[in-house]
């Protein structure tokens, strides 16, 4: 039996169609929000002056020993992994339905959703 899973993103601000999930952090807490391209652009433009003056902090945590500043291939969540798999399949890339997603595919997904 085969199964096809599609992930539809809804903009968390206006309820419209979202094209990407944006991750950000403040005060030691991490957040993720699904946004349309327009709302994601507005968020990035709003944060831009603060990011220009900020310092990057190396990431660490479970499963990231020796890889500070580098995300896990699946992005750390099953929802994100499903989004990446769906995108990869629609883009004609070969990706397994289970297991680790190759870092190259994750990087391509992230580049396409900036």
TrEMBL record:
Pfam families: Lsr2 (PF11774), Lsr2_DNA-bd (PF23359). Residues 77-112 form the Lsr2 DNA-binding domain. Residues 1-57 form the Lsr2 dimerization domain. Gene3D superfamilies: E3-binding domain, Lsr2, dimerization domain. Residues 50-95 are annotated as: Disordered. Keywords: DNA-binding. One of its GO terms (molecular function) is acyltransferase activity. This is Nucleoid-associated protein Lsr2. It comes from Streptomonospora alba.
């Amino acid at each position: 039996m085969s199964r096809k899973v599609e992930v539809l993103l809804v903009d968390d601000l206006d309820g419209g169609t979202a094209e990407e999930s944006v991750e950000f952090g403040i005060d030691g807490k991490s957040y993720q929000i699904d946004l349309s391209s327009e709302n994601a652009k507005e968020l990035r433009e709003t944060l831009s002056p603060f990011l220009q003056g900020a310092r990057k902090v190396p990431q660490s945590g479970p499963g990231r020993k020796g890889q500070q500043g580098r995300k896990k291939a699946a992005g750390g969540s099953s929802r994100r992994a499903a989004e990446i798999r769906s995108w990869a399949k629609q883009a004609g890339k070969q990706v397994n339905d289970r297991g680790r997603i190759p870092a190259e595919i994750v990087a391509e997904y992230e580049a396409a959703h900036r």
